[in-house]
Amino acid sequence: MDKPQNHNEIIDKVVSGARWAAMLRLTGQAVSWLSTIIVVRFISPEDYGLNAMVEAPLELLMLLSTFGLDLALVRSKNIEQNELRSVFGWLLVINGLLFLAYFFGGSLIAAYFGEPRLELLARALAFVFLLVPFRVIPNALLDRKLKFKLRALAEFIASVSAAIATLVLAILGAGVWALVVGMLINRVLLAIILMILEPWITIPSLSFSAVRAMMAFGGMLSLGGVIVLITDKLATLIAGPILGAETLGVFAVTFEFALLPLTKVMPVINSIIFPAFSKFQEQRDVAEHYLRKSLGIVALGLFPVMIGLACIAEGFVVTVLGDKWSAVAVPLTLLSVVMPFRMTTSFLRPVLSSMGRPDLSLKSAIIALVILLPLILIGAHHGVIGLVAAMMITELIVVLSTISMSKAVLGTSFTKIGESLRPAIVCSAVMAVCVLGGKIAFGSQVSLGRLFIDIGLGALVYFATLRIFYQTLLDDGIRLFLGRGKASASLPIK
Question: Is the pTM here over 0.90, yes or no?
Fold first, then answer.
């Protein structure tokens, strides 16, 4: 049975673990990001299109692979041995069925997209389902104990190893197989390392009564995740057959790089948000306070990256990715501008679920799907720009809806969320004006040197603006990251 802890003790433990987790994961993500940038130069748009086609159904089935049982384990106040055995047993059954479905369904995927090469790719990737129980259960047990450092260590080793393998295979000319093998290496290593760090293996059981409540809670979370993924893959699923592999590859790379700051950082944040806020299920005023504080801090780190990417998209694409990807520049600029909306939504959803309202998180996901579906159907006939426009409209509407729904759970409001985000918005806006102003004043020639100048100017302006107008917030963030003083002192309760 878990020992009761006051909120200051919990926050100190969360921040201490999160600090190590952030350093390990961000270092690993930096290696992965650098690898991705280099890999793009060795893999054709067609190969990226094939990878997008085979990953769309895989990621959808992966969300069903846990049925939310891992998150239910994290949120449960106590875990009995018979519950753990039953979770293990049901995960084995679920993932065994998913393995068979994806392995033998490869021909259907190939037929749908009209790409025979997808069948063999799907059969290779099907084996990731067999690893799921041995990955998610130790993950959940570590999260329950707020041992974020150990989980981050496992992910660091696995992600760096996979990134290196992908890079080597891409340079050797493996094409789309470099991406597929990289994913397999990541999942195998992660499962092995987690089993070593958190030994838990037990005899599986299929007792439904032991996991009925977990399945009810987890099922709703799983359904929400499925809807989110379907929403993200709508462009591939609907526009893929219309646009073809090459044009779809342009959109896939645009979407990947626009999401890159979020996909590299938000997994770090979300892996901490759910278990941390689950500790405050019965202290909603405390949860609301920490929501605003943590959202503001995360925005300080992510907003300038996303807005900065929009400002330097053309130079980044041409000098880093190469001329063959020049068609990515304009859509990347447009899509990067709305990524702060997506970040806010992505932050709020797990908080709502951790507070016992997965139905609201699900509702937010449904709204996104309902809005995006007709827009994608229209946008698919207008190429990559049409798809990007559809996503921009959707992100704005969804973030407003999600903030509105959070009022019922946390007592927050548009004004309070706006106040939390204001420092990041103001400093990012000043940064963007200066970077774009520099382009106008000194010309917009494209070169690697000019790209570094723009990045350096943006970073300098952002830091200076933050220092001048929000010095206290900056100092608190630095102390929090460096671990100077108690976390509870840095984040005082009102």
Answer: no
* Residue 396: both structure tokens together: 């704005």
Q: What size, in residues, is the chain?
A: 494
State the first-to-last Cα distance of the chain, in angstroms, to the nearest integer: 30
For tokens 């996909």, name the residue. Answer: 263
**What is residue 9's predicted lDDT score, i.e. its pLDDT?**
61
69 CB contacts (<8 Å, ≥6 apart)? 87, 90, 91, 136, 211, 214, 215, 218
Pick from 294, 283, 263: nearest CA to 14 = 294
State the SS3 of the chain: CCCCCCHHHHHHHHHHHHHHHHHHHHHHHHHHHHHHHHHHCCCCHHHHHHHHHHHHHHHHHHHHCCCCHHHHHHHCCCCCHHHHHHHHHHHHHHHHHHHHHHHHCHHHHHHHHCCCCHHHHHHHHHHHHHHHHHHHHHHHHHHHCCCHHHHHHHHHHHHHHHHHHHHHHHHCCCCHHHHHHHHHHHHHHHHHHHHHHCCCCCCCCCCCCCCHHHHHHHHHHHHHHHHHHHHHHHHHHHHHHHHHHHHHHHHHHHHHHHHHHHHHHHHHHHHHHHHHHHCCCCCHHHHHHHHHHHHHHHHHHHHHHHHHHHHCHHHHHHHHHCHHHHHHHHHHHHHHHCHHHHHHHHHHHHHHHHCCCHHHHHHHHHHHHHHHHHHHHHHHHHHHHHHHHHHHHHHHHHHHHHHHHHHHHHCCCHHHHHHHHHHHHHHHHHHHHHHHHHHHHHCCCCCHHHHHHHHHHHHHHHHHHHHHHCHHHHHHHHHHHHCCCCHHHHCCCC
Domain-wise residue ranges, the chain? 7-486
Q: What digits encode the pLDDT tens for the residues 207-224?
A: 887 777 777 777 777 788
What is the token pair recorded at 140? Answer: 């959940």
What is the maximum span of the chain, computed from C-alpha positions, in angstroms?
70
What sign for the dihedral angle of Cα 465, 21, 341, 376? positive
CA 247 to chain centre: 24
| Confidence label for 293 from pLDDT (cuts 50, 70 and 90) | confident
